[in-house]
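Researcher: Please translate sequence to structure tokens.
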Amino acid sequence: MPETGNRPNLADDGAKATGITELRREAALLKTGALQNAILTSANFSIIATDEKGIIQLFNVGAERMLGYQAAEVVNRIRPSDIHDPEEVMARAQALSVELATTITPGFEALAFKASRGIEDIYELTYICKDGSRFPAIVSITALRDDYDDIIGYLLIGTDNSVRKQVELELREAMSSAKKANLAKSDFLSSMSHELRTPLGAILGFAQLIESGTPQPTPSQKRSVEQILKAGWYLLELINEVLDLALIESGKLSLSPEPVALADVMLECQTMIEPQAQQRGIRVSFPRLDVPHIVRADRTRVKQVLINLLSNAIKYNRAAGTVVVSCAVSAPGRVRIRVEDTGDGLSVENIEQLFQPFNRLGQAATAEEGTGIGLVVCKRLVELMGGVIGVESTVGRGSTFWIELNLATGRHHAGSKAAAAAVTRELQQSQTKMRKLLYVEDNPANLMLVEDLIARRPDIRLLTARDGDSGIEIARASLPDVILMDINLPGISGIQALKVLAQDAATARIPVVALSANAVPRDIERGMEAGFFRYLTKPIKVDEFMDTLDVALKFAESQAARAGTAETS
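Model: Translation complete:
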């Protein structure tokens, strides 16, 4: 007989394997069933299933909790669109009708239209609860299909969107409040600028008159006037820089980018900075630019940045020191301007604190005046123009501040500075004849200051008006050569008066120069856009005032000559 004691039983092994497989399958089915049950009974989101006609067939625990209905109250009774805001459902149907150039029936059809075409749709609608309350929800809708790809129903999964909507509402309200605060801040800054500049204008204006008056002030008086002017100009610088920084930080500073020839800007900076350098015995060297470097930037702001860097290089230099300005292309499409001084230099620690507002790096204890804001404003301005600013320094050997700006494309037609200087000399030496100047101003101190200035010009007769309406009447009656116009006037503003004058054929050709304490860039731009010939800010700088007046008178003379030629031809 054959031996069987040690032979394996294959049938038993197969049965065991089959049993294990069945157990695993049952466990998997139980797990799947548990997951499906957990989903269907979840209270965190609603699950609504409909048949192919859109009638609700399944309404899970989450839907009951959110909407307040029991499943028995809605199953085989209503459609999902019956518990949505009807106006929103109508709007959705209309939007689909316009999008597809067909008519979509409002109701569940509008909700399920895209899902029926195999496109899962997610939308925001308002659910209406059983008690009439409402809440915003995000709902996704999917078409359910059988093995033959026929639609057998729709599945809608919704989540309560109240928290997100509340956060969005609070965010919008916060942004609106911030916007209003910024507008209020901007208006406050403009108002404060005007209010601060008005008395400061009288202080600086009359101090300049005393300094240059006849008879000459005594040595003691001259020292006192110099201190008044020094303190006044410093206070004006502080006002300007604080306002600039505040406007930049609030996002209200507007720039006017245009092609700017650096050679022209540097020449202007050289003219402005030379008196300060000569007074301190500092030699300043500017480059001769054989290659014209044209940058795309705001001309006024580029000049402001360079003047600040040059002024610092002079103030914090050693006795009989030097300042060297250079300019060269640093990278494709970029040009670098360097201002190098021979001062004490800066330590690594000081460089790290250099662009912090009101941080003067220990200079507050010295005789040098400063605000600690200038470099911060420079940095912000350069960055707003798409550039960068940096510094290289060695203690005991000096510092080099540099800015990089983007080069502009296209040709630049620069005016000749020599020609401009010649025109200025011609204006100053023009034949003396009596011309009329109308000044529209309600502030007595400002009127007195301009009266004293014009008293030095025997070729000009001054007329005055205290408000815009009177100014218009006097202008029409006397036809002055030039009009000086304040902006903030009783009654109509200076800008409104300018518009009236421009619409009158008799006064339309008269150049009108704004003279205002509204000195923030936004005010100046608004004034120039309104049509002022020039815009001067208070406090008055006597030289600038006289130069502008001469230019305006020359322009008026050319206008009159042109009008005479037209009449005789």
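Researcher: Any highlights?
Model: The CA atoms of residues 120 and 142 lie 5 Å apart.
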